[in-house]
Amino acid sequence: MKIIAITGGVASGKNFIAEIFSQFGAKIFDADSQVHDLLKNNSSIISEIAKNFPTSFKNQQIDREILGKIVFEDSEIGKKNLKILEQIIHPQIKINYDEFIKNNLQNNQKFVLLNIPLILESHGQNPYYNYDYLVAIKCHIIIRKNRFIARQFKKNPQNFDYQQNLARFDKIVSLQLKDEERFEKANFIIDNNSDLIFLKKQILEILKNLSI
């Protein structure tokens, strides 16, 4: 079994590309979906977060937007809060990941793909996730910016603030690795600046090369 990790800047198309890999037979480990499920359904994790971040607990559930603002605050307090949150969530994510790998090995799965945000940023310090190949996404910053803005508008059209979301996008980009750094580490680069046909062709070519 070959483990592929995918990396790309904010709004570069990681989820969409992961879905195409899935259509071509790869099994996906999606860390964001894992976190979403834990915050919604894992009572012990919900209890720990409510205890450590009580302002994020509303109507008997975790408000992910409020929690995100708490842990991604650009300050030493924000960094401390993020570390606390990771200590609460990550042990269960790691258990789920190990189970995912074990099950796919037993099922003789040919490819699995790890869709884990910041996998490069965190891999050197916290190598929880081993992979055999790294795929980096190339996508023009203007396309990514427009996609991010459209996504935020769709989430909350009534209270949408263009300038605020634009500033948020620029801040996220500034905290992430530069594309050139991703490309240097990658085994394969996917160009996501064109159409779906070209995108699928590139993914099929990667899977073909890994099948040799």
Structure description:
- About 60% of the residues lie in helices and about 15% in strands.
- The chain has 2 domains: about 130 residues, 3-Layer(aba) Sandwich (Rossmann fold), CATH 3.40.50.300; about 80 residues, no CATH class.
- Strands 2-5-1-6-7 form a 5-stranded parallel beta sheet, with helices on both faces. Strands 3-4 form a two-stranded antiparallel sheet.
- α3 runs antiparallel to α5.
- It is an alpha/beta fold.
- It contains 10 helices and 7 strands.
Tell me the count of domains.
Answer: 2
Largest sheet: 5 strands, parallel
Count of helices? Answer: 10
CATH architecture of the largest domain: 3-Layer(aba) Sandwich
C-alpha termini separation: 13 Å
Chain oligomer state: single chain
The CATH H-level superfamily of the largest domain is: P-loop containing nucleotide triphosphate hydrolases
| Shape, principal axes of CA atoms | globular
Give short descriptive properties of this protein:
212 residues; alpha/beta; Rossmann fold; five-stranded parallel β-sheet; two-stranded antiparallel sheet; globular
Task: Describe, in short, the structure shown.
By secondary structure, this protein is α/β, with parallel strands linked by helices.
Structural topology:
Elements (H helix, E strand, L loop, with lengths): L1 E6 L6 H10 L3 E4 H11 L1 H10 L4 E2 L2 E2 L1 H8 L4 H31 L4 E5 L3 H5 L9 E6 L2 H15 L6 H14 L3 H7 L2 E4 L4 H16 L1
Parallel strand pairs: 1-5, 1-6, 2-5, 6-7
Antiparallel strand pairs: 3-4
